Amino acid sequence: MLLFSILTGAVAPGISLLTYFYLKDRYDTEPIHMVLRVFLLGVVVVLPIMVIQRGLTLLWGDHPFLFAFVISAGVEELVKWFVLYHIIYNHTEFDEPYDGIVYAVAISLGFATLENVLYAVFQPASVGTLIFRALLPVSGHALFGVTMGYYLGKAKFAPKKSSGKYILLAAAIPVAEHGVYDWIMGSGTTYWVWFIVPLMIYLWVKGIRKMNRANARSPFALLVREEEIKL
């Protein structure tokens, strides 16, 4: 019974956040089965990511800066970006800018949810610890996903000459954001909270703005406005 409660507490933040971002799609919500498949892809990539990270740690050591920006943030975000680009980017269901956010958040939260479950099972996990992880690591992964999906959405519907730039930004900016997060959390300073709280506020504010912009650029938004005018 205790294990069930711990697992529920570990899974709930990811599912709740995924539901939140999914329901923010104003015009043409994605098929739930597609979103769940991408969420499960996030679960599946945990193992190869762990193997790559372990290998790089053995090769390069665990220097804080290198670990934060390359071994942790770099590997995790680039693997998620690679999967999204090759499996989702050209999919027919990716038909409006906000879809990039939905799918990027889904794969990010799939990864974060399994990571949270493994932490809860193999580390002493109190209610306070699970709340802490919901507010920081799990939310952080979701917000890095918002950034990635936003730029993939821009790339998908931008002129061909500028789409490459946005595809690169979809990888580079989440790596930078994630790296800063990991750098703060791994710094060892007793004042880490004074840095992580402003960072999370910034990510949430920026993320919500990007969500609004992506929704506003939906091709379905014009159709809705035209219908409203006719009525």
UniProtKB/TrEMBL annotation:
Official protein name in the record: Protease PrsW
Keyword annotations from UniProtKB, A to Z: Cell membrane, Hydrolase, Membrane, Protease, Transmembrane, Transmembrane helix
Task: Give the family, as the similarity comment puts it.
Answer: Belongs to the protease PrsW family.
Q: Which residues cross the membrane?
A: 6-23, 35-53, 100-122, 134-153, 191-208
Among the GO biological process terms of this entry, one is: proteolysis
The UniProt GO MF terms for this protein read: peptidase activity
Enzyme Commission (EC) number: 3.4.-.-
Location(s), subcellular: Cell membrane
